[in-house]
Amino acid sequence: xxxxxxxxxxxxxxxxxxxxxxxxxxxxxLIIAVIGLSNSISFLVHGHVSSGMSDFxxxxxxISALAxxxxxxxxxxxxxxxxxxxxxxxxxxxxxxAIILALLSIFAATQCVMMDVGNPFRAMKIPFLLRNxxxxxxxxxxxxxxxxxxxxxxLVSTVMVTRGxxxxxxxxxxxxxxxxxxxxxxxxxxxxxxxxxxxxxxxxMWNTPLLPIHFVTSALASGFALxxxxxxxxxxxxKKHLVSLETYNNMGVLFCFFLIAxxxxxIFDYVILIYSSTAEGIETWHLLTTRxxxxxxxxxxxxxxxxxxxxxxxxxxxxxxxxxxxxxxxxIAAYRLNLLSVGxxxxxxxxxxxxxxIPTLPEVMPFFGLVALLMLIYxxxxxxxxxxxxxxxxxSEGE
Length: 399
What we know:
Layout: H1 2-15, H2 20-38, H3 40-46, H4 61-76, H5 78-84, H6 95-117, H7 120-123, H8 125-128, H9 136-163, H10 168-198, H11 211-238, E1 240-241, H12 245-275, H13 279-288, H14 293-311, H15 318-345, H16 361-384, E2 392-393
Antiparallel strand pairs: 1-2
Helix pairs in contact: 2-16, 4-6, 4-10, 4-11, 4-15, 5-10, 6-9, 6-11, 6-16, 9-10, 10-11, 11-12, 11-15, 12-14, 14-15
């Protein structure tokens, strides 16, 4: 009883002085989450008959979101490496936020799998019951659990350090986990996610050894973009900089490097697709430049615009980074949708004819409900857990 009373008092202390707007914001997110996720019950009961997926396109918006969220999770761990591996103490104020974003992103990825399968108990068979060690699904799903364990350990130890009085052992654990999270996320988690697609020989758009590398670069770009975007928005809401303007500039330089690598692979992916002149490659290019032209333009055009913005120092201010990171997240989300949808729409046999995939409202609603739930959990965790202590007061220079 004493522990419960202590916990309640701690929550009251954290919530003391909280504005009504915060509670309205959380209530709105809760309503969206409940309405959206309630639609997933129909998938559990009736299957995916109300979705746009079919036997020809079994992977839809949920698997696209899986790849996107895993990328965000992997890229967000870069902050921990910068702090503990490169001694960038100026990134320390956003260290805990980055861990929370990474943890919520990998959680979202697993929930997307659950919604795609329909019956979550089927998904739980891997890796607990179906242990085919040669299967990329087994390797990938196992790596997700390992990654969540690393992030949970990093979050707990980091919170203990932030509260003060942590032992040297706890500080060392936080440092070691912050460093190893990056290679584990990029090499074990996300590269194997890319390998799931890359080993499919029947799909022209997927079957390439460069796809795992492509997934890694886009993960760095999207995950780091998410951390920067949340940092800028939080600074504006609190009317205080979480990091200095010099750190924003350093973020922009690193972010620009990730963008250049992503744009390079994106463009040459399509160059090789066109130049190969295979029937599947020509049909893929035709779909990208006709039916999926908007997403294709968002992907390539968005990444190029974001790269140009961050290439200049004026674009590495909070406002410039807000624009660049927003564009990047949308661009990489468009890439994931194109990769999944167009990759499955090339008929394996000429007799099949034209294949269509259009996400339906019942299919999209659970996704938005999941995003709202993530935002709600993030808002609560950042309110209850100790975050950054010292922030620079916002001035006209950062507006």
